[in-house]
Design brief:
Number of strands: 7
Number of domains: 2
Structural class: alpha/beta
CATH topology of the largest domain: Nucleotidyltransferase, domain 5
Helix content: 25-40%
Largest sheet: 5 strands, mixed
């Protein structure tokens, strides 16, 4: 997506004569996100305007199609000798929705170097600060990490070491580490403090990561081309041979 564009329900843009065509297109993109994490954020943004799509929304959707046409063989690469170690990245873009001012949560999880889980979702409530938004994202990521841990246990797969979850916000990390409820955190829902409980229980290690190395950025905002492709390469997405891609 164009990193300078913020999609919204713009009354100045003309409504589509055939909104069903837009809905069918976005529906196909949603289906494609099962194997193409690179379009997850764009698809999440486009899916918010299914009721009354405009020509500006269609233009953004066509831009996604052009990107897909330029790299039809790109897919996830799973290495056979990847270590069994869960690694996750959690991020949030604060107040990104221009109407509701809700933040967007994004996370991704790897087994070793192989990407196995990813998500982009608008948060249910409005966060009063970027730290709160990041902490809510940490809670959502912790739920996913817990489920992945249960899944591996059911499959009789033993991880080589404790799971690691990375966050690029120091305040959110301090909230998770500090057992005392301060004035700044008393408005947070109790379920958000699941993060603190799981860290203390030893489910995961919560570590800082520089924003420049935050892989979940690609799931929370539209990045400039250089940053987008840099993050994409770290998600282990490669161009597969046409024979394997069905071409």
């Amino acid at each position: 997506m164009d990193s300078s564009l913020r999609l919204k329900q713009d009354n100045s843009s003309e409504l589509l004569d055939d909104p069903l065509s837009y809905r069918r297109l976005v529906g196909r993109l949603i289906y494609l996100t099962t194997t193409r994490p690179d379009i997850v954020f764009a698809t999440q943004q486009l899916s918010q305007f299914m009721a009354n799509p405009t020509k500006s929304h269609l233009g953004a959707a066509i831009r996604v199609l052009k990107y897909l046409k330029g790299c039809p063989t790109k897919g996830l690469y799973f290495k056979r000798n990847s270590p069994i170690h869960l690694i996750g990245f959690s991020d949030a873009d604060w107040a990104t929705c221009v109407f509701t001012r809700r933040s967007v949560t994004g996370y991704c999880f790897f087994i070793g170097n192989s990407l196995i889980s990813w998500k982009t979702k608008k948060q249910n409530t409005v966060s009063r600060s970027s730290s709160e938004a990041k902490y809510r994202a940490l809670a959502t990521s912790t739920y996913e990490l817990q489920w992945l841990t249960y899944l591996l246990h059911d499959l009789k797969i033993q991880c080589s070491k404790s799971a690691t979850l990375y966050c690029d916000n120091q305040c959110a990390l301090h909230i998770a580490a500090n057992p005392v409820f301060h004035e700044r955190t008393k408005h947070l829902e109790i379920d958000c403090h699941l993060v603190r409980e799981k860290v203390q229980a030893g489910l995961m290690k919560l570590l800082p990561v520089p924003s420049s190395r935050q892989l979940a950025d690609i799931f929370t905002k539209a990045l400039p081309p250089r940053l987008f492709h840099a993050n994409l390469s770290k998600l282990e997405m490669v161009d597969t041979p046409l024979q394997l891609a069905g071409g």
